[in-house]
Amino acid sequence: MNYDYVVLGAGRQGRAAAFDLARFGEASSLVIADRDGDVAKHAARVLNELLGHHGVDSVTLDAQDRQALIALLRRTHVVISAVPYQLNLGVAQAAIEAGASMCDLGGNTELVWKQLELDGAAREAGVSIIPDCGLMPGMGNTLAVYAMRKMADPRHVRIFVGGLPLQPRPPFDYLLTFNIAGLSNEYAGEAICLRDGEIAEVPVFSELEPIEFPPPVGRCEAFVTAGGTSTCPWTFRGSLRSYEEKTVRYPGHCLTFKGFADLGLLEQEPVTVGDVDIVPRELFHALLEPRITFPDDPDVVVLRVMCSGHDAQGEPITVQLDLMDQYDADTGFRAMERMTGFPVAIVAHLTATGRTPRGAVPLETAVDGQAFVQAWRRRSLPLEEAVSH
Predict the structure, then answer these.
(1) What pTM, to 2 d.p., does this model score?
(2) What are the residues whose beta carbons fall under 8 Å from the beta carbon of 265, sequence distance 6 or more?
(3) pLDDT per residue over 198-216, tens digit each?
(4) Domains of the chain in sequence order
């Protein structure tokens, strides 16, 4: 059977998701939609050239135009939302009304809880709504579920993830590979973790520690950021003792950006400067984005998942999963595009083929870790697994 897909958002991650669906999603139709029609057309043209056929169509559509969105989704099995996370609740509501399943790149847990409140309506419509399906939150959590299933009594999960430039440029040694609003969202507020079996709030930029990866990455630092664990601490409360995630950057990043946050540059309440009201975070974005955006610079993504517990004989066991991906010169996709777009495409295909439950369901309970890893390896993508006793 073939399936009909829509990808909302023709930006970096949306294009990568569409590319993967066209190759592995058994797509009979694939539409990439964007409010900027020229961007959508360009994305479809680039994808069709890469794929060697004309299977990707484009549509001009504003995701906030509810009626137009519903009309498009009525002939769709699954829609992937690769638009800013603020729009995902409306997209989920439209998908349910249209009778289409939906998964998204998420990134904001408060909004995810609102999506999950649509569970009854989604069940009644016979569709799946699965938030937070990108890299992190997303694949890191799915791989944690996979690792947990490798032992009889999982107890602790630690996840480390980061997107880095292969050729770091001073002074920030960072490369922006996704929407800058997502970066600020990670660097504001508190992270939700599971500690000693209970939900715990941990300040962002805290618990700084060194971490080492193989070349070409080498020595890095890891620290607490917000949003990556999504709903997992609540899901695994009562079964795990700890569940936590940290962001990986090159050394020095944490203290630099914590300084920006301490200065108030991530605040969203306007401040008056002369006769003008300015939102600090918007000013921060305007100043920082051009200084960390280098379209031709290659990137690398690292992801490490560590799960420890006991095997069936009660002996200690640790499962470590490591992934490192780099810019792909053959397709022009950056590592961050691949490692964000491909996971959500896998979830979309699993959903289209009926391998996810109906309703509005957290990713960690919606997607079978083994099925995800099988799909990942089918693509010959990097993933190393080590088990120690």
Answers:
(1) 0.95
(2) 280, 281, 283, 284
(3) 999 999 999 999 999 999 9
(4) 3-134+338-375 (3.40.50.720), 139-336+382-388 (3.30.360.10)
